Amino acid sequence: MSASNEIGLWGVPLAVFAGSLRVSAPFLFVSLGECITERSGRVNLGLEGTLVMGAMSGYGVSYLSGSAWLGVLAAGAVGAVFGALHGYLCGRPRVNDIAVGIASMLLGVGLAFFIGKPLVQPSAPHLPAIPFGFWSRAPSVRSALDVNALFIAGLGLAPLLRWALKNTRWGLVLRTVGESADAARAMGYDVNRVRLLATAAGGVLAGIGGSFLSLFYPGSWNEGLSSGQGLMAVALVIFARWDPVRCLFASLLFGGASALGPALQSVGITKGYYLFNAAPYALTLLIMVLSSSATQTSADMPAELARAR
Predict the structure, then answer these.
(1) Number of helices (H) and strands (E), helices first, in the chain?
(2) In which region does residue 272 sit, left (phi positive, over 0), alpha (psi from -120 to 50) or beta (all else)?
(3) DSSP string, 54-98
(4) What CA–CA distance (Å, rounded) separates 198 from 175?
(5) Would you say 82 and 199 are in contact if contact means Cβ atoms under 8 Å apart?
(6) pLDDT of the chain along its 309 residues, tens only?
(7) Coil, helix or strand at residue 2
(8) Domains in the chain and their CATH numbers?
């Protein structure tokens, strides 16, 4: 029985809330990773490939080892490799970030589908959920409040990253490189090294976000697992003005919009179902248009991102 049939129309906001918690986790990790990368003055459009590779490798290691958490570690390691590769290539002379990102995306997606074909049928251990709905007798409420530990980690990671960017030497170096590569070199910092490490760190988070898809929700490995979360994360970072906490809120908003279609279908509203499924993409486009401001964007955006490379 669906949530809406059990508790009436309250099932719609409940389903949207549950979807916000579940669907937003991959967007949160990928957008936080891209936020670190872009703060260093580099764009990584290849995070979609990293996300899919993380989902496949995490599922495969979980299946072979019997431990979902080992799968998460493996996904993060694979993400680090892809991020480091992207960072190394973009550090070479006359190499364009955008072109390398597109190539990385195609490589990651194609490689994941090729290697992961034997993993479509097997069932791997899933990540456990924390039952925050233990107080309720309604199964729908308990199910909606089953929150994965990775999402809780993401909730804590967002404000931690904001604090680190503003209050640590690491954050100062990263922001300096993102604002002015020449000033960073004058201070004795290796710009390419800083950006390579930032891109690798962003890849780790993107890989972990991919493991959430295969090991918790929807909790399987197949070729249709990702629906553009990696690419959408780049837009979320811009909307969030390169702020980790704003990335958290943007991810929750996008997750809730993604759950709107299934929630309305659960109460019998099926007309325009596919249109409602496009709500997150339409919402993102609308938000980007309404929030666009040349003055505000230029004030928040790392100055090095404005350079054509």
Answers:
(1) 16, 2
(2) left
(3) HHHHHHHHHHHHS-HHHHHHHHHHHHHHHHHHHHHHHTSTT--HH
(4) 11
(5) no
(6) 444 445 455 666 777 777 788 888 999 999 999 999 999 999 999 999 999 999 999 999 999 999 999 999 999 999 999 999 999 999 998 888 899 999 999 999 999 999 999 998 888 999 988 888 777 776 767 777 788 889 999 999 999 999 999 999 999 999 999 999 999 999 999 999 999 999 999 999 999 999 999 999 888 898 778 777 888 888 889 888 899 999 999 898 888 877 776 666 665 666 666 676 777 777 767 766 766 655 555 667 898 887 755
(7) coil
(8) 3-306 (1.10.3470)
Which residue is associated with the tokens 């409602």? 276
Place of tokens 């030497």: 169
Q: Which helix (H) or strand (E) holds 147?
A: strand 146-148
